[in-house]
Write a structure and sequence with these properties.
3-stranded antiparallel β-sheet, 474 residues, alpha+beta, 10% strand, 4-stranded antiparallel β-sheet, disordered N terminus, Serine Threonine Protein Phosphatase 5, Tetratricopeptide repeat
Length: 474
């Protein structure tokens, strides 16, 4: 009888483990990792195969080509980041091998996220539209996950994952993606229904319409008509932000203009319009638009009233526009309204760091650690405070960190130069071979040397990007 009970108990435990593993393997969203490392490896093996072929090692050249164009694409295709509702996990052939060799895998619980940062790279500009490629980086507990836009999987990951992350962990661009990233077809339908002019027509339209006008005269309109106009303006505001995130800047500007004509004193609308102006200034390298973005942010801070969350976001955007003093005032205003506003604390720490005031940086990070809403944010703020405290107290550690940062900057410049020289040398080797064998040999030699330099600088940059641990004093 005892044996039967033990067997039943073991079966129950096995079933419970199966249910648990089934629950944890549930896949809500999945996206491929950023393919930069795989592309670099494929390029390296392709170049190696060319050198082997030139030296007469045809068999090894074939092996290198097979690795570059068969094996590496398979590794890249299977390397994915999966979100199951509770944690991010990196799965695939390469992560599995790394886990076997080093005993640790890429896994990060949702509550352990510390920062979520998204960068945007302009890949194409045409008329009033810009094609953005977004690159999102999630970090926590020494683990980083990086994935880039390029299809439905990225949009699904953003829509599923980002709304579950605490507001204080998201930067401004990640917040925009969370709220306004939509499918292209849906956006196209909304644009047609709003009857916006085509982008090629709006690209030449003037963008210097006035801000800060008066409210609509509600007494001259019936209440239903006034409410309908305001509701339509709010719909245009959302459409404008969706167009801005999609890179359709000219159409976004027109949608913002229509919304501002109805609700010109809405602080959130002014803030979002300022972010559009900054995007246009960056895309067109226009200092006048950047100045107008700063002015719109200043007006939004005046209209924000007692909205501390909006003021903190305005301060972040003002700092991105390079207006440090005004950003500092906005952050102080937000803290005066809400002393537990974490974004404002981090913003003031960033301002102090730009001004070289390490004591203020430490103070703001320690204050942020005491008011953080989640444990991971408190740990992140405390770790930053400890790091800058070491820099402030230990001159030897400060000198070592300055040397590390300088070396990392030099390595980055060398890597970019070596990459350009490698491409030029390969072109010289391919074209010069038709004229003179000496030119081809010179090109291959130069390309080999530049490629080795590029690899060394790449490894050096990765190594130097990690903060050094201070030496323990005896």
């Amino acid at each position: 009888m005892n044996d039967i009970k033990q067997i039943e108990a073991l079966q129950a435990i096995a079933e419970a483990k199966e249910r648990q593993s089934a629950g944890t393997s549930k896949r809500l969203a999945s996206v491929r990792v950023s393919p930069g490392a795989y592309l670099a490896a494929a390029s390296l093996f392709t170049f190696t195969s060319a050198l082997l072929l030139r030296s007469g090692n045809n068999a090894w050249a074939l092996v290198a080509v097979a690795i570059a164009w068969l094996l590496i694409p398979i590794l890249a295709f299977t390397d994915r980041i999966i979100f199951d509702g509770e944690r991010l996990t990196r799965r695939g052939i390469v992560p599995s091998i790394a886990q076997l060799l080093f005993g640790s895998g890429w896994r990060l619980n949702l509550l352990d996220f510390e920062t979520v940062e998204t960068s945007a790279v302009r890949t194409l500009r045409r008329g009033g539209s810009v094609r953005y490629r977004y690159r999102s980086q999630i970090a926590g507990k020494g683990v980083q996950f990086v994935f880039a836009s390029g299809g439905k999987s990225y949009r699904r990951m953003v829509r599923v994952l980002f709304p579950l992350i605490h507001e204080d962990k998201l930067d401004g661009r990640s917040r925009d993606l969370r709220d306004y990233l939509v499918e292209p077809r849906s956006l196209e339908k909304k644009t047609k229904l709003s009857q916006l002019a085509p982008a090629n027509v709006l690209a030449g339209a003037a963008t210097d319409f006035k801000l800060g006008g008066k409210k609509i005269d509600e007494e001259s309109l019936s209440e239903p008509t006034s409410a309908l106009r305001v509701e339509k303006a709010n719909l245009l505001r959302r459409l404008a932000n969706e167009l801005r995130v999609a890179g359709r800047l000219a159409e976004a500007s027109e949608a913002f203009r229509r919304a501002l004509n109805v609700i010109p004193r809405e602080a959130w609308l002014l803030y979002e319009f300022a972010r559009l102006l900054r995007s246009q200034a960056s895309a067109n390298a226009d200092a006048r638009l950047l100045s107008r973005a700063r002015a719109a942010l200043h007006l939004a801070s005046i209209r924000a009233g007692g909205d501390a969350n909006l003021l903190a976001l305005i301060g972040e955007s003002t700092l991105e526009c390079g207006d440090v003093k005004r950003a500092q005032r906005v952050f102080h205003k937000a803290l005066h309204i809400d002393s537990k506003n974490l974004k404002a604390r981090f913003g003031l720490a960033d301002v102090a760091l730009r001004e070289g005031k390490l004591a203020h940086v430490i103070h703001h990070h320690r204050d942020a650690a005491t008011i953080a809403a989640e444990k991971s944010l408190a740990l992140y703020a405390r770790r930053e405070a400890d790091y800058y405290a070491r820099l402030n107290d230990d001159d030897e550690y400060l000198g070592a960190e300055l040397r590390r940062i300088n070396l990392m900057q030099h390595a980055s410049r060398v890597r970019r130069l070596a990459g350009a020289v490698t491409n030029a040398a390969i072109l010289l080797a391919l074209v010069g071979g038709y004229f003179d064998a000496t030119l081809a040999a010179m090109g291959w030699s130069l390309a080999s040397s530049a490629l080795v330099t590029w690899l060394v600088s790449l490894v050096g940059t990765r190594f130097l990007s990690t903060r050094r641990k201070p030496r323990l004093q005896e």
